[in-house]
């Protein structure tokens, strides 16, 4: 997928905020990987933050070669050994592996806040509203963020009504796909039905922390 824009995002059958955020995180990893591999100071800075959280470590692993991972995790391992040499404090040990200060999470928070504001701004346009209503909509975690970010009662009502319609469509698509799968007619499934299992998983848990849409497309044709 090329870089998402507000003009093309609603046709993607994924939560728009997930896609924008994922794109920012991908760009962050693509740019950071180079400095982590080539610059000792950048590797040490990452090690000082105790690396990535459980979700973003997968994204790091996917774009890294084995050699990259050796370069990146060498200083982190050294730091852990230094800590064990001077302390047996359980809290310090827990912190080493928890990714509390994950740099990709920082990118995620910034990206989500910025795109939430943009989304609310776009919702003032009738044309965008129509497109949003017909799309699979926001995932529930991002819907929660957006509802918290607006005091506009009319916007909130629109978002809740749209989400109900989107969930109903998803329910029908899941049932339609399951039925066609059962009678070996899944080739007759619509694009919406084929995407429904992935869309359902992303609807409840967001598409973050995985390679959304682009690399899970394979699942839709299995
Ligand atoms: Zn989302
Ligand atoms: Zn993270």
Describe the structure.
The protein has helices at residues 16-38, 40-48, 56-63, 66-86, 90-98, 103-122, 126-134, 140-149, 153-182, 191-205, 217-221. Helix content is 72%, strand content 0%. Residues 212-222 have low confidence and may be disordered. Helix 1 crosses helix 2 (40-48), helix 1 (16-38) runs antiparallel to helix 6 and helix 9 crosses helix 10. It has one domain. 26% of the residues are buried. It has 222 residues and is an all-alpha fold. The chain is elongated. The longest helix is centred in the C-terminal third of the chain and has 30 residues, at 153-182. The chain binds zinc ion (ZN) (2 copies). One zinc ion (ZN) binds at residues 15, 17-18, 138-139, 142, 206.
Number of helices: 11
> Can you write the helix and strand succession as a string?
HHHHHHHHHHH
Helix content: over 70%
Task: Using the alpha-carbon principal axes, give the shape.
Answer: elongated
* Mean pLDDT figure: 89
Structure, briefly:
This protein has 222 residues and is mainly alpha-helical.
Give me some keywords for this one.
mainly alpha; 222 residues; binds zinc ion
Secondary structure: elements and pairs:
Layout: H1 16-38, H2 40-48, H3 56-63, H4 66-86, H5 90-98, H6 103-122, H7 126-134, H8 140-149, H9 153-182, H10 191-205, H11 217-221
The structure holds zinc ion (2 copies).
Residues 15, 17-18, 138-139, 142, 206 line the site of one zinc ion (ZN).
